[in-house]
Amino acid sequence: MQAPTPITIRGFQIYKNWLDPSAQSGLVESLRPVLKTAPLYRPVTPRGKPMSVRMTSAGDYGWFTDKAGYRYIEHHPSGVPWPPIPQPILDIWTALCTDERLPECCLVNYYDENAKLGLHQDKDEADFSWPVLSISLGDEARFRMGETTRGGSTESIWLGSGDVVVMGGAARLAYHGIDRIRFGSSRVLPKGGRINLTLRVVI
Ligand code: MD6
Ligand code: FE
Known about the structure:
- The structure is a single chain.
- The protein has 2 helices and 13 strands.
- Helix content is 13%, strand content 33%.
- The chain is globular, with a radius of gyration of 16 Å.
- The protein is mainly beta.
- The chain has a single domain (7-200), classed as Jelly Rolls (Sandwich).
- The two termini are 29 Å apart.
- The strands form 3 sheets. A 7-stranded antiparallel sheet has the order 1-2-11-8-13-6-3, covered by helices on one side.
- The structure holds N-[(3-hydroxypyridin-2-yl)carbonyl]glycine (MD6) and fe (iii) ion.
- N-[(3-hydroxypyridin-2-yl)carbonyl]glycine is lined by residues 109, 117, 122, 132, 134, 143, 165, 167, 176, 178, 196, 198.
């Protein structure tokens, strides 16, 4: 099937409501064993500040940060291997990105009522010719998009449950972040909050 035309803002391709409610709850179900094997933890930035977003990963590599810096690691901080990326998540990548290569990391970010994510670039991967794909589940979030240099102009859009964003080409190295969520705006996650999945080709 050919994907319908997304909204494009600064090269970010935004597929509103790509996942219908049953696909959204299917993804939430597929994440349960991931979260059981590899529980969410609170990473610490290289400057020593605990992040407000909690994280875990699935796949061969998990994105990680502590005082030693940003990097990909092959095990959860507990020492267990990262669980495999659930097939329904890989299917979204294949539908919207490419079937030439599969992502090696599915980073899982959980936002509670007060969590946010400052403007950043995703640049810990080896080859920026592969896009990053992001899937939103649960509460709405204001996603901010900037330029490829820090301090440029920005614009924002609200992402809701089932929205998918592909960040490739010129946008692959653009700054972006989450200003805040609207806690309680969705019932997709029983306890509220927001899950964002980002799929990345790492090596
Ligand atoms: C989020 N997303 O939506 C955070 N990164 O919670 C990201 O940082 C992100 O949405 C790369 C590509 C798309 C994204
Ligand atoms: Fe990012």
